[in-house]
């Protein structure tokens, strides 16, 4: 573990940290909408769905880092750094968020692991999005104790989260990263190097 | 709470959160809520504390109704400290109190710990590698620059007669360009101040695990485990 | 016993030969056009990398710097950067200085005294425990200087340290640097575009040209600048009397900190170019922002007859804002797309590229251009759209004379096409040459908020 961590440079850590914060800020833009939507959905008992539409934003930092840095552990470690930062940026659930970060990171990581970290592309991002949905869903059931809910509602949560994950952490991440690589911004990273 | 070692505090609260997660224990939830809402009240200004209640309540009421309406099998209710609760209400309450207990556990941590303190302590107690420690710290301290840049990017797109839809690749690209650039500039600056991950470094502030850390850990985990195995109804 | 650099290094397919020497207690400058590779050279001199060095090496007291690790290098040399926002990793000046000492593995017992001394030396003891984010650019530069002081480096290399500072703050920094040079016997080498900042201090300058870096004097550089000035194309101010006014201000005032800037009642017409100047922190950017509805103002502000209240997209149908740093505004993958993302068609793009001298760079990423090219591209990409009002923030910042002239010419050209152009700049000289009118915000009635209130 320490050997793997030693490979990270200071610049990489700062980069994934700032990226996580950027996605956090973007996410915050939607939180207000999420709250109002949640309040609207409360009387019919569907408030739990409100945040699912943007759930995929949570996986973006990990997917971005995994895709750009292409190194074992990049996605997982990034998601944990993101969770740690989040605790101090006003997420009042505190340390337990760290567990969520770990669980989501493992899911995204699985995508990049699927081909031995050789080259990241659509399949890796999509597998990562699906895996992160599955792991975060299982943890969500445990953490929020949703096991008692009717399966239809659980299925709705799962499907919406999956779509959100595919859109944000696969499609948008891929489009943005490829642009950055073409712009020459990522020339110091593997994903930028393969572009040229 | 402020005097506690940040690593110990973090781990214990994390562990208690996990214990809460793996069961449906209304009594445990309520005990933790009362305990930590009180602790939080000591450390937070009253207005912030009330706002915390408000935010948590919005979430809690939401899940209460989800639990109430969508319970799998409508089990029979029962007596609870002389209250008659239907199965639905009980499930809803279990979900809702869990939100509160997570919220106050977390808030009690956040209100009494700073990120630099936790990072320093993680370095000293758990040997977090220095590039992670100072990298995370550096990222944290540029956070205030991000919202203005978000706005700036938006205006820059408008200035070209383009729209800047929220969460579009067009808006996100310039923001991520900045993340990469900033990380390069910051890392260069830190290295020019002599930072290197390999060389030994000293620590101005020492973090140690003391007797009251052990007391906190043992008593809180003891309480949580104790209530878990206390015959529930 | 000195810093010696005899080397050849590559910048963008050019090979540059350097012969540079700096003794302890000596102060020299490094001068040259934008994008020529000055910052790259400074990085090499500080031993941050050896990338691009084809031949030769950098020696400190006879020892090659590149062989040392980062924490060993600082004993010899410290670097200071131009962006005051992006050089700290902790919360306060004091903790930042502790960070520096921890890097050096200094025993904790000795730290407090060293830190207090360095803070006092730089005159920022009173700021020691304030969050860094709340400090001004000048204060941050003094903190950066304190880092160099606490590290006790023998040489100090500065990359445009005054770029974000006004004259007064620049002079404070110069005094501190002189003190370091003379009392602590430090060798100082700094990059600057403006000789005026250090006119009573640094006489020896290294001139950076396409192929070499060689020693010359300030006098010589000043003469050259004057010669260059004569070769620059003349300014054409086409001032037609426009019919309606674009921007109307009446009883307009802006709160800036504890003060307020009170503007005279004016109606500005299309086709005019107005320069806005004043010392840092006076409220130049605040003024531009208020025109876009960012931040509060008092009195009336009309853009094309409509009140400016909140910052909405609608407002930007009639105005554009060119920001200080071109890199903040690039949105496209290639130079051609950058120009085409506005309202230019293909022929228009080709023509503009030709005017900018960027025809061969059409498919290159904007980020790979030189600094001067980036700035020209950024300004040009906002000029194609028909506009009522164009706001330009410090277009010539960090630019050499020739580039600055071209940028101002581009803005003037837009004004001549019936747009009202407001340009913010520190460079009063340039403003007077290009603008129809120059507002010095220092001159504007500056009263405390309390005084305004009692007036009403």
UniProtKB/TrEMBL annotation, chain A:
Residues of the signal peptide: none
Keywords tagged on the record: Membrane, Transmembrane, Transmembrane helix
Annotated TM spans: 12-38, 44-69, 81-102, 122-141, 153-173
Xref: InterPro entries: ABC_thiamin-permease_prd
Descriptive protein name: ECF transporter S component
From TrEMBL, chain B:
Keywords on record: Cell membrane, Membrane, Transmembrane, Transmembrane helix
Membrane-spanning ranges: 29-46, 52-71, 99-119, 131-150, 211-230
Membrane topology summary: Multi-pass membrane protein
Matches recorded under InterPro entries: ABC/ECF_trnsptr_transmembrane (IPR003339), ECF_transporter_component (IPR051611)
Gene source species: Lapidilactobacillus gannanensis
UniProt protein name: Energy-coupling factor transporter transmembrane component T family protein
Xref: CDD domains: EcfT (cd16914)
Keyword Electron transport: no
Record localization: Membrane
Top-rank taxon, per record: Bacteria
Automatic annotation (TrEMBL), chain C:
Natural source organism: Lapidilactobacillus gannanensis
CDD domains: ABC_cobalt_CbiO_domain1
PROSITE patterns, sorted: ABC_TRANSPORTER_1, ABC_TRANSPORTER_2
Occurrences of domain ABC transporter (ranges): 1-235, 246-456
Short name of one Pfam family: ABC_tran
GO molecular function, one term: ATP binding
UniProtKB keywords: ATP-binding, Cell membrane, Membrane, Nucleotide-binding, Translocase, Transport
UniProt membrane topology term: Peripheral membrane protein
Protein name: ATP-binding cassette domain-containing protein
InterPro entries: AAA+_ATPase, ABC_transporter-like_ATP-bd, ABC_transporter-like_CS, ABC_transpr_CbiO/EcfA_su, ECF_ABC_transporter_ATP-bd, P-loop_NTPase
UniProt family annotation: Belongs to the ABC transporter superfamily.
Localization annotation: Cell membrane
